């Protein structure tokens, strides 16, 4: 998707002046230039253009409120002097994975007085001798370089710490689940006791019903025997009586 079209989609019926964060990662730039981004984005504070094929930032509009700029995984090799004019209040700049080979390329960044964090991972400049010491000397306003300060202490908002916090949260959740399983709430026990009582009542009802059926069968059998006895008695009563007359 082209950058202009992507910006149009990201606006989502908003005006450029309403946008504070804009993510254009993995779209296509035209001839390695930023396009479709204008001075109308005056409230923009965060801009991400990761892996869009940029070779220059010369066409970046004036974004006075921009604080964080993501330019990683592009083909930028210079021209960083425009950032002091275009984005004078930058505090975080990510240039990881670009074609920055020497310290002179990042020298113009010293004009960014508010810059606190700079990332140059996977750039050739990181292979230079005493790379970290020289960058901190060149850019004295920096607090963090590649996620660490001068004393090699990790930045508080680094991905590593966020990941570690996530692991701690997961462990806490697991412990809570184990405690929950071991100490079941009293409500569940009452439900189980109620279920057992219902089962016992059902069994008693079944026994009562079976007993009543057996009694009914016995009564039916007795009635059948009485009927047979009555029929037998009637049979004897209905036998004909023969009278013998003696003729003289």
TrEMBL record:
InterPro entries: AN32 (IPR045081), Leu-rich_rpt (IPR001611), LRR_dom_sf (IPR032675), U2A'_phosphoprotein32A_C (IPR003603). Residues 147-156 have a biased composition (Basic and acidic residues). It is found in: Nucleus. Residues 147-236 are annotated as: Disordered. Belongs to the ANP32 family. Gene3D superfamilies: Ribonuclease Inhibitor. One of its GO terms (cellular component) is nucleus. It comes from the Eukaryota. One of its GO terms (molecular function) is histone binding. Multifunctional protein that is involved in the regulation of many processes. It comes from Oryzias sinensis. SMART domains: LRRcap. Keywords: Leucine-rich repeat, Nucleus, Repeat. Residues 157-231 have a biased composition (Acidic residues). The keyword Repeat applies. Residues 128-146 form the U2A'/phosphoprotein 32 family A C-terminal domain. One of its GO terms (biological process) is regulation of apoptotic process. This is Acidic leucine-rich nuclear phosphoprotein 32 family member.
């Amino acid at each position: 998707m082209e950058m202009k079209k992507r910006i149009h989609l990201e606006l989502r019926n908003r005006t450029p002046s309403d946008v504070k964060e804009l993510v254009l990662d993995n779209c296509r730039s035209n001839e390695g230039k930023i396009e479709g981004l204008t001075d109308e984005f005056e409230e923009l504070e965060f801009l991400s253009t990761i892996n869009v094929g940029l070779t220059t930032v010369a066409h970046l509009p004036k974004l006075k409120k921009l604080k964080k700029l993501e330019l990683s995984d592009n083909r930028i090799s210079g021209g960083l002097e425009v950032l002091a004019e275009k984005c004078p209040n930058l505090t975080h700049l990510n240039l990881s994975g670009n074609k920055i080979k020497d310290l002179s390329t990042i020298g113009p960044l010293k004009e960014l007085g508010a810059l606190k964090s700079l990332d140059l991972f996977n750039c050739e400049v990181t292979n230079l001798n005493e790379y970290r010491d020289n960058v901190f000397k060149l850019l004295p306003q920096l607090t963090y370089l590649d996620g660490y300060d001068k004393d090699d202490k990790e930045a508080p908002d680094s991905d590593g710490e966020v990941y570690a916090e996530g692991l701690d949260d997961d462990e806490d959740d697991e412990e809570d689940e184990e405690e929950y399983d071991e100490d079941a709430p009293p409500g569940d026990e009452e439900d189980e006791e109620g279920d057992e009582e219902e089962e016992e009542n059902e069994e008693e009802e079944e026994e009562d019903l079976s007993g009543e059926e057996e009694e009914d069968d016995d009564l039916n059998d007795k009635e059948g025997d009485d009927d047979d006895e009555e029929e037998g008695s009637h049979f004897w009563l209905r036998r004909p009586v023969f009278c013998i007359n003696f003729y003289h």
